[in-house]
Amino acid sequence: MSEAFSHRVLPYGGVEEFLAGALPFLREGVAAGDRVMAATCLGSEMLLRDALGAAADRVEFVQADTWYAHPSRTLADCLARAEEAAGQGRRLRLLGEPVWTCRAPLEVLEWQRAEALANVALAHTGARLLCPYSARVLPAGVIAGARKTHPETVRGAQAVPNPGYLDPWAYNAACDREPLPPPPEHADGMRIDLVDLYWLRAYVADFARQTTLPEDALQRLLVAVTEVMTNATLHGAPPIHLRLWTEPAALVCEVRDAGDWNGGTGFGLLPPPSDGPGRFGLWAVRLLCSHVQIRTGRGATVVRLRVGLPPVRVTESLTAYPA
Amino acid sequence: METLGTVRRPVRDLRPGDHAWLGYVSQEERRHVVGAFVRDGLLAREKVICLGAGDELVPGVVGPPPETLLTVVPPARLCGGDGAPDPGTAMAALAAEVAAAEALGFRAIRVAADLTWALRGADGLDRLLCCERLLEQTARPSAQVTVVCQFDRAACSPDELAAVGGAHAVLVDPDPEFEDLVLRITRTFRPRGLALSGELDASRHMVLDQALAMVMAGGHGAEIHLDLSGLTFIDLGALNMLAEVAARRAGHALVLDRMPAQLRAVMETVGWSMLPGLRLGVQG
Which residue of chain B comes nearest to A79, CA vs CA? Predict the structure, then answer.
């Protein structure tokens, strides 16, 4: 790999602009023997297959809604593929069209954050990422945001630097500048003085079993809560409060303590290095939950975990597990 | 080996009247289980009678054996006129010791008998079952006597083991290494390792660490298996700890057997690549 990592945004108005940016990117990769992937919607896939002809067989197409299911998992998948390719002396080349419509504002924020962090996480792999953004479909704010998270913009055959590009960690910090809204009045809560988290899990499980949360998701939540609470008891400061409530389509679990985290912990936003066992606590917490928010400073640290609630309880997952 | 009427009981739950057996795969297992049986008896100032222990030290005895409490019946006293071990002679020697202990007023008498010798040679099984009948008559009606018979599995055929199992109402298990209301850790010997049940989190990482260190100390670098069938929760710290232990053992994996589906789902979400050195063993 002679050339370095790149992460470019391709804003496009119509099909011609899309193909003018995407086709050379994919063809170059096929010619260079890269591992070429395209995570797009079905319509774009058909367009690309048609235009690529025989070369389409050397592009792995994945559906965008599957690929972009969870920011941390997507980042981990992407990194695993990029490192695997790098290990074979190849390069990962990904055309990735993130899903923006039908996302709640909180989710949009997390996907934008993931775009920024990709610059840090993947830099060492030499991967090439091209992200098409449809100017017709997407709100202007999303496209403007993309210029802060992508170092370069593709315009025709050219890649030009984005003057508005922000350092990924600065961008990340800006994502968390807004204070969290307070928990709702009806939230269940308790002050945690006990050290044995067994009782805490029993309390969370009791609450969750009154919702539609499936058992496997509950198990993941319990692992995440245990980790956050262990951190709070080991590194935080009392008093520690646990709060639980439901929102439309989500169960929220908040752990608040009176400690300040020192900077540079990364908050588990990037996977720990894969060479050898590292402490992966908060990174794993992000994988286990749908959404994690962290605020720390001025004598308080809040970690808010969200897990998605299905509209109705699925009971099959109970019987699917042998005792 | 295990018949319908067999009860499994850890050493600490054995009680007078129990005629129990242990089929050990290694001296480590025998020392662990019989050692606990002997040690508990000595600490409670009960009479302990060891049969056929040979020249080796009696497991569970630290320092000079307390003579009034511990009696070792040497192999020579098990032999008949022809110089070969003989059930009648052996059981007569044992009965004499039991009677002597009763006369001394011991409220409980523990008999630890390695009977592997009885199975050797022609008519081994008949000889053994003759012993077992006599032991049964000694233990079962007694309000004082507990018997633990031991057999080296390597020296027994499957048929012999089945017959041995049929002759005992109780199968003795190791005592837990650790047990409270939340977590239980027990040694396993087939395969070597630990069985965990309950919930494991930071409150109990230390006890797991100690139990693992003990297994590794005797392991000569072989694989260690963790039977997780009874585990309902494991935290990330414990998984990290296991991965670190596996990494220190370079090349000798920690094998996770019978991991419940909901724990496996968590590990798959976190990603096995985060946990090098850990591998899934038998399922279900």
Answer: B273
> How far, in Å, CA of B14 to CA of B104, rounded?
22
CATH class of B176-280: alpha beta
Quick one: fold of A188-318? Answer: Heat Shock Protein 90 (3.30.565)
Specify the fold of B7-173. Answer: Rossmann fold (3.40.50)
* One pLDDT digit (tens) per residue for chain B, 284 residues: 455 568 999 999 999 999 999 999 999 999 999 999 999 999 999 999 998 756 567 887 877 777 789 998 888 888 877 777 788 888 899 999 999 999 999 999 999 999 988 888 778 888 888 889 888 888 888 889 999 999 999 999 999 999 999 999 999 999 999 999 999 999 999 999 999 999 999 999 999 999 999 898 876 767 899 999 999 999 999 998 898 888 887 667 789 999 999 999 998 888 877 777 788 889 87
Where are the domains positioned within chain B? 7-173, 176-280
Query: Which chain B residues contact residue A278 at CB under 8 A?
Result: 274
CB contact under 8 A, A196 and B203: yes
Nearest beta carbon to residue A230 from set B237, B269, B277: B237
Which ranges in chain A are annotated with CATH 3.40.50?
6-175
Q: Give me the residue from A215, A222, A233 closest to B233, CB to CB.
A: A222
Residues 6+ apart with CB under 8 A from B196: B183, B184, B185, B208, B226, B227, B228, B230, B231
A198 vs B: CB within 8 A: yes
The CATH fold of domain A6-175: Rossmann fold (3.40.50)
Query: Do B271 and A201 make contact, defined as CB atoms within 8 angstroms?
Result: no
What ipTM, to 2 d.p.?
0.84
**Helix B261-270 vs helix A215-235: crossing angle, to nearest 10:** 60
CB-closest option in A230, A272, A321 to B202: A230
- The residues, ordered by sequence, that sit 6+ positions from B20 with a Cβ below 8 Å of its Cβ are B9, B14, B146, B147, B148, B149, B168, B169, B170, B171, B172
Whether residue A276 and residue B247 make contact (CB cut-off 8 A), yes or no, is: yes
Residue from A196, A199, A316 to probe the interface with B (highest B Cβ count within 10 Å): A196
> What burial class does residue B214 get, using C-beta atoms within 10 Å of its C-beta: 0-12 exposed, 13-18 middle, 19+ buried?
middle
CB-CB neighbors (< 8 A) of B271 in chain A: 76, 287
The predicted-structure confidence for A252-269, as pLDDT tens digits, reads as follows 999 999 988 775 566 888
Closest Cα in chain A to B275 = A277
Task: Give yes or no for A103 touching B (CB within 8 A).
Answer: no
Which pTM value belongs to this model? 0.87
Residues of A in contact with B270 (CB under 8 A): 280, 284, 287-288
Give the integer Cα–Cα distance in Å for B128 and B138. Answer: 15
> Which residue on chain A is closest to B246 by alpha carbon?
A277
The dihedral region occupied by A273, where left means phi > 0, alpha psi between -120 and 50, and beta the remainder, is: beta
